[in-house]
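Run log, item B.
One chain of 394 residues. Sequence copied directly from the ordering sheet:
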Amino acid sequence: MLGIIKFCVFGLKQQKARTALISLSIAIGVFSVLIISIISDNGVNLINGELDSLGICGVSISKSATENEDLFSNEDLKNIKGQNYVESATPVITQTGYLKNADNSAALICGIDENAKSVISVETVSGEKIKYSDIALKNAVCQIDEQTAKELFDNRNPIGKTIDVFLCGEVTTFKVVGIVKPGSSVLQTSVGDLLPNIIYVPFTTLQKITGNSKISQIAVNFSEEFSNDICIEKIKSVVGNKKIYSSSLKVEDLNKQRDTLNNLLNIITVVLKLIGGISLIVSGIGIMTIMLVTVNEKTKEIGIKKSIGAKKSNIVFEFIFESAMISAIGGFVGVILTVIATFVAKMFFNMSVAVDFKTVLITFSVSVLCGVVFGVYPALKASNLKPIDALRSE
């Protein structure tokens, strides 16, 4: 057996160019599958992370105002927060405005409360967050992102400074109490190009400025020990019987929507991996072609081996092992190329890329398996040659 392995290695060395080319095709196939897997898996993780930053793990209650009914009130929000099965509840209020600076830059004013992180990922890098006292007293305070701080204050510390915002036909002065990280929320990422300046203020302050004390949407996160379906029915009764039967009341279980999205993303991931796997099949066909050529080249050699007592199983093992070695070399090179690509992405493009060792191992194993499978037919053809016919071949 060891002699057969040594003979296979010697044969590969004799045909270095051919071995290198077919191994390269396998390497490209493995590299393609791994890169597609990394991109799709990291994409799913990124989207799930962004959904987490939006608080997509509870229920969204929204309502459109009609002639006979109002939107949600602050009392509704307070009642919802007071339920033992509610972990957090946050109003969702936004308003567009303009910063009173040289360019009158557009801004998105977000009304939040102390539970804002449940809905929008607001990562404070300096200063303070919007506090409960700011909500209760309707203080004219705000948080701004680093981009807005640089635009308005250059390199000066903006904490404690004031900004003027043109909102609802009048100018309101806000005191800056904190700086948030730019791009720390999906909201910021989504509208960043159109509304580069995002200002976070107490939602009660925004209600006071707009003259509208109603809330059109409330995001609710339930405690893990309670069932969402049961909590949804309970939360309807808290809002009021009139609103339960209202056609304008809309309750969305964001967990179910998230699961649906995750299922769709998983299907896309599988499809992309299968598409990448096609390249491995094509490479396997290439291996089979090369091995058939090798059989023709070694016909006399096979005849000599069989005439001195070599068994069919020896011939089959020799050719299958040779094709498996070609695949293994290509698979190893493909893995190395993937590692280099991820390293370059991290070092030069500042991309956070996670490589799943299990995916690497499975892909490498599949590449070797392709070599074995596509080497079977050439091996059987070689083992079935008659010694006399093989020796007579030119």
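Observations after the first pass:
- The longest helix spans residues 254-297.
- Confidence is low (pLDDT under 50) at residues 183-192.
Flagged for discussion on Thursday.
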